[in-house]
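Quick check before the chapter quiz. The format below is the same one you will see on the exam, so make sure you can read both the input and the output lines.
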Amino acid sequence: MYTSIDLFAGIGGIRKGFENAFGEDISTVFVSEWDEYAQKTYRANYADDFEIAGDITQIDEKEIPNFDICLAGFPCQAFSMAGKRMGFDDDYKGMCRGTLFQDVVRICEYHQPKVIFCENVKGLTIHDKGRTFKVIKRAFEQIGYTVYDKVLNSKDFGVPQNRERIYIVAFRNNIDSTGFKFPEGENSDTKIKDIMEENTVSVKYYLSTTYMETLKRHKERHKAKGNGFGYEIRDINGQAGAIVCGGMGRERNLIVDRRLKDFTPVTHIKGEVNREGIRKLTPREWARLQGFPDNFKLELADTHLYKQFGNSVTVNVIEAIAKEIRKVLENGK
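Here is the expected output.
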C-alpha cells in the first residue's frame, strides 16, 4: 500500500489518475485545497475520513502524516501564457502564487517521500528565459531527488483536447529510477463528437443572437490589431483547444449542434436564441475533455464547474505517467 498526499488538490484530478493506475494499492492521507468551491466538488467525489486542509502556507509540515507519494499541481497562473507571467513576483490576494512550489519543497524535504509528482503549464518551462524552471528542478535536486520532466499533450492520450502541460517526476535518490520514462501518447484520433452529450442539451447553452454579435465585433476588433483573439467554432470531427478557467475559455470552444428544436429561452437573454445551432460545451463535456468519468459528481453551478475543469488536469495523462512511476517503485522492491 502506497500513501499519498494531494496538495493544491483542486477537484482531485491528479488523485483520480493515480487511483486509476494504482487501484487499491494507494491511499490518500492528506489533502490541501484553499478554494471553498473546489473543496465542495472534491468532497462530493472522495469520501475521506479527514477534513480538507486550507492554506498550505499555514500548515506545519510536521503535522502532515508520513507519505510515499506527493501529488502537487501547484498554481499555474503565475507562469501562464494567458496571464501576466509574473512568476515569482506574482501577487494574488496577498499571496505569491509563483512561490507556492516552495511549500512542496518544504514538506517533501521533511518527509522524504519516494516520489514527487507535479503538473503545470508549459509556460513554466520558458518563464524568465528558463531560469524559473531551473530553480524549481534544482530545489528538488538539493533535497535529494532525481528529476525528470516532459511536456505532454492531452490529445495524444485519448481525449480530443489540444492541451500541452509540463510534468515533473522526482524520485528519491536511493530509488533506482534509471528505467523511468514518460509515456508515449498515441491515441490521438478521438474527436469532439466522441465526448458530446448523448441527449439534446438545454437551450441555456445556446448563444443568443445579441451575444453572437458581441463576439463577432470583439473578434473583428482584435483582428484589426493583428491579434488572433476571439471566439472559435470547432469542427466536432476535430479537437478542442485547451479549456481554461476564465476569459474566452468557453467561447474558444463553441460547436454547432443542431439537435435543439425548442428555442424558448430558460434564462434572461438579449435577442433570441441563435438558429445556427451554435452552443457552448457543457460542464459534463468539459469533464470528459479532461478524462473524468461520467460518475464524477457535478453538483455546483456551471460557473464554478467551468472554472474547476479549466483549472484541473487531464486524468488520462496523469494515469499514464502514474503507471510508469509504479513500474519503477515495484522494480525497487
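If your answer matched, good. The chain has two domains: 2-188+309-331, 198-281.
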